[in-house]
Every structure is written in C-alpha cells, then in structure tokens.
Amino acid sequence: MTVRVRDFLAADGEAWVRVRRAALPYMVTTPEQVLSDLADAHPDRCYRLLVAEEDGEVIGTAQVGISHESPLPGQGFCNTYVHPDRRRRGAGSLLTRTGEEHLADVGARTVHTWVLDEPTDRVFAARRGYAPRRSAHFLRLGLAKASLPPLPELPCGVGLLTAADFEDDPRPLFDADAETTADEPSDSPMELSDYENWLATTWRRPGFDRALTTVVTVDGQVAAFSAAQTDGLTRYWSAMTGTRRAFRGRGLAKLAKNHSLHRARAAGYTDAFTGNDAGNGPMLTVNRWFGYEICATEVRHVRTLG
User: Fold this and answer.
1) Rounded to a whole number, what is the largest CA-CA distance in the chain?
2) Which domain holds residue 100?
C-alpha cells in the first residue's frame, strides 16, 4: 500500500472533516468551512491544504501557510493530523515534509505546528527538529445537562445585542476583535488590520453564528463579545471571547458568554467546546466557572527552516 500526498480538492470536503474529527474531535469543523477557508484566504497567507491518500482513501490532512497577520515576518504554520486508525504508514511525515517544502518556497523562516500533548505525538515532532513552546487546552461543556449560571440583571448603561444586530455595519465588531486578538498570549502574535479580509474569513465564514454571538455594550459602545461557531447540528464552539481594554475587570466577557451559552442550549446545541492558552488564567477561570473541563492539551512547536 502506497501513501501519496496531493493538494486538497473540493470533493475531499467530507473526507477532510472525517479525518479531522477523528484526530481532533474537540474542534467544530464542517466541509463548508474548509472550502470557504481555502477560497477566501488572503494571497499573502500562501494557504495550502494537503491530503494524504492511501488506496483512494484520505487518511491524513495538513493546513499550511504564512501567518501574514503577524508583525513578525516569515512565520509559517503546518498543522498535520492523521486518522488514529491509519497511523504508522508514513502519512504524517510525508504531509509535514511537503508542507515544509511549500513554506520554504514562499519565504518562511520558521514553522509552527500544534502537537497533541501525547508521548507519541511529541516524539514525532522532536524527531523532525521541532522544539516545544507554549501549551493550549481544549475544554468541553456538556451543554444539555450543564447547570449554567442564571442570567443576571444588566447593570445601568449596559446593553445586550447579538452580531445579527450589526448586519448593516459590522465594523465595531471588527475593531473589538482586533483589539482583543492583539492581547492574546501567543508565540506568534497577530494584528488584525484588513477589514475586508476579516469580512470574508470571519464575518461571512460558514458556521459563524450571528444569532448566538453575543455583544455587550456600555453606553452604546461595544465593550465585550463572545463569538460563536456551530456545525448546525449539536456542536457549539466559542471562537473568541474578549473585552476591550477600557472595559476590563467588570465581568463583561463572562456576561457575554453566559448569554451565548444559554441561547445555544435553547437552540438545541448539546456540546460546547472552546480553547484557551494555558497561560490565560483569567479566561480559564471564567470557563471553569461555567463548568468547562479540560479534555485535551496541545503544545505548540517551532522549527527554524534552513
């Protein structure tokens, strides 16, 4: 049996999701999202999707590209996942090597990759010259049976909206997303500055649930938000929860997320997932308050290309 790597085709959407859900069941992934991410990627991202195929079956995937929104030049990424039942066939190595070659060709200086915090996965990365950096957790909340905190009365001057209320002008949400993203703990910081690209890759991305994305305002200004992605069936993902700098320390992010979770449960979603940098203590505290539990940990690794 021979494993080969090729570029992703539109017809691979279902197979891609099947592999990704098996390897990383904590993420909310749909074929529509995969196709949209590829079609709407910024040219500077040099984004490429790879699949490993064995006897006509897709057994592995890789997302490869440049972190073009980072102020640090030449930051590449290559995230490889192989179906747990199809490991030890060389698919992971072949996907990673092909991804690294692509990144070298487009000028990347370093490659970042997320590796599950499991012995075999960490050994795989170390053998290929990757060094561990910071960790991040996946967290799960059984939404159907969770005892969510009650919804409090809104303080004076505080309002509650959804992303759907910004259909005519989502720019205030972009500004809030850009500010909070810039403050996220990361080895490869991001600076959101391209509004049109944000509209294509966030606002219009399939699965971005505007009705469940909750926005807290203070005296009419966007102060905090909790963005929601869903698969349209049972799975809900907190894509980003944050508060603008001028409004922090008032519990507004917690308020936004609480309302979003209540709405998600009322809409029939049963499993809520989110991800947190291991060093983001305030957000981990908020998620534990809701009842989220860590279900897996990934470690970001980096390798210098030479």
Assistant:
1) 67
2) 3-108
264 and 157 in one domain?
Answer: yes
Residue 179 is assigned to a structural domain of this protein: yes
Is 268 inside a domain boundary?
Answer: yes
The overall average pLDDT reported for the chain is 95
The structure tokens 């209540």 sit at: 262
Tokens found for residue 17: 């999701």
Q: Which of the pair, 199 or 239, is modelled with greater confidence? A: 199
Residues 59-68: what's their mean pLDDT? 97
* CA proximity to 63, closest of 45, 46, 50, 76: 50
Look at residues 108, 126, 161 and tell me which one is the last residue of a structural domain. Answer: 108
pLDDT of the residue at 50? 98
User: Which residue in 60, 47, 45, 44 sits closest to 5, CA to CA?
Assistant: 60
